[in-house]
Specification:
By secondary structure, the protein is mainly alpha-helical. It contains 20 helices and six strands. Helix 3 crosses helix 4 and helix 10 runs antiparallel to helix 11. The longest helix is centred in the first third of the chain and has 26 residues.
Length: about 475
């Protein structure tokens, strides 16, 4: 008998999905939080705030053989030594990795999906419903992919209903992947071929969903489908091609970009820099203090002589911590050129944060071909040579043995995608090469056990949800 009026100071969920404009704003808010976070502007370490604004790169790089810590942070050192305990993990950024993927990406995507499904407004058009549904499913799949590759079996969250999510058990990874594939196929069917944003490639389209689907098929050993999905993106030459100049790959205008995240350029201490650019680049560039981690000798030694990726995407700083101690040389990723030494608050961004790019599809198709997919070894070598030629390297021999081809593929993954979204860490795990690679790295000895290949679940999450169990070994 009593009708409660809508709050005067906020917009209700029903009204958010009343029109195309408000519903699109809700989806845009998810992207904003994925790159800028929800932690305010006081923290200058933006790249450690959210799994999707640099934290994945940093933690996975330490776990692999890409990064070494340059600070006294014991939790980060144990991460680089693959000597984690649940207690140490709770003191590092690992709980943020878990919480941000669920609370920002998955919750936001589910809220959009539920809001659109519940809306009966005639002002929310069918085309916008399809577009936003596709984007939300792509985001949900993206978040679940990173969670399952860091933690293994994880809760599969498909609703915002607290009563259903508060006590979820862990789903088997095979079931997580099945849901990821379903979401990405739905996204493919719903999303357009082109980009709807006038600001760049900052919202996923059909090809972003396709690129991520190709990766998932590769990870699950479905080489035929991995090759087909990767090839469909590569063949879409009207939108995508490899940038001949490596310094153009990460620009806002990059023709290699499939999906990027657009940072808020008005945030103090970040401005028009990407979070990773702000985090990695010293200030001053060649004499400033290094970040909490620097590149390892294992990574630096992986490049062949003359590899332009080494000269264009890596730089160094000669930092003197104490006037009485000679300066030490630290190497850092230089894929993003804008950082704390040259950022501009409110200035135009020349770089966005790269999420998916075309080079990955060449490597996916090459690896699929080498493992029985279409084209065989010849096709694999041709795809590898596309990246090698761009890097200024000679073609691989046409008569590579099967084992040499496998090694060449791993090397191209390592040198093309170093310090990008955990590719090296995930690739070492899925190809079962961690033991062979880590056996020669002193800091990782003695090897504690393969349980270190998965991160421990945050203790507080287990306390909050008594159906959750800890990963074996922790």
């Amino acid at each position: 008998m009593i009708q409660i009026p809508d709050p005067a100071s906020s917009i209700t969920i029903t009204k958010v999905f009343d029109t195309d404009a408000t519903a699109s704003s809700a989806m845009a808010g998810v992207y904003t939080q994925l790159i800028n976070g929800t932690y305010g502007i006081a923290n200058s370490n933006y790249a450690t705030n959210v799994f999707s604004d640099g934290l994945t790169t940093i933690l996975a790089g330490l776990s692999a053989d890409e990064l070494q810590t340059t600070t006294a942070n014991n939790a980060l050192f144990q991460l680089s030594a693959n000597n984690l305990t649940a207690k140490l993990a709770d003191q590092s950024y690992i709980p943020t990795l878990w919480a941000s993927a669920y609370s920002i990406g998955i919750y936001g995507a589910n809220a959009v999906l539920e809001g659109i499904a519940a809306s009966t407004s005639p002002d929310l058009t069918d085309s916008t419903r399809r577009q936003l549904t596709g984007e939300a499913k792509c985001i949900r799949a993206f978040c679940h992919f990173y969670l399952t590759n860091f933690y293994g079996d994880i809760p599969l969250v498909l609703t915002t209903d607290f009563n259903k999510t508060a006590n979820l058990a862990r789903a088997k990874q095979v079931d997580v992947y099945a849901q990821i594939i379903k979401d990405l196929k739905d996204a493919q069917a719903a999303l357009p071929d082109n980009y709807i944003s006038v600001g760049g490639r900052v919202r996923p389209n059909k090809w972003a969903a396709t690129a991520l689907l190709a990766r998932v098929y590769l990870y699950t050993g479905d080489y035929s489908d991995a090759s087909a999905q990767a090839g469909s993106v590569i063949d879409h030459v009207d939108l995508y091609h490899l940038e001949p100049d490596l310094n153009n790959v990460f620009l806002t205008t990059s023709s290699e970009a499939i999906w990027q995240l657009q940072q808020n350029t008005s945030i103090p201490n970040l401005g028009n820099a990407t979070p990773e650019g702000s985090f990695w680049l010293p200030n001053p560039l060649h004499t400033g203090r290094p970040p909490i981690a620097s590149l390892t000798s294992q990574l630096l030694n992986a490049f062949e002589p003359g590899d332009r990726r080494r000269t264009n995407w890596i730089d160094s700083t000669d930092y003197m911590a104490d006037p009485g101690i000679p300066a030490a040389t630290y190497y850092f990723p230089y894929k993003y050129k804008t950082g704390t030494y040259n950022y501009s608050v409110g200035g135009a961004a020349s770089e966005y944060y790269m999420v998916l790019r075309l080079a990955e599809l060449y490597l996916i198709r090459a690896e699929a071909a080498a493992n029985g997919g279409p084209g065989g070894a010849n096709a694999a070598i041709a795809d590898l040579n596309s990246l090698r030629h761009r890097a200024g390297l000679n073609s691989l021999p046409a008569n590579l043995s099967a084992s040499d081809l496998t090694t060449a593929i791993a090397k191209e993954w390592q040198t093309e995608f170093f310090c990008e979204w955990g590719h090296r860490w995930f690739n070492l795990k899925r190809t079962r090469q961690t033991s062979a690679v880590f056996s020669s790295i002193a800091v990782k000895q003695p090897w504690k056990g393969d349980y270190q290949l998965l991160y421990p679940l945050p203790t507080q999450e287990i306390l909050n949800d008594h159906y959750l169990t800890q990963n074996t070994g922790y």
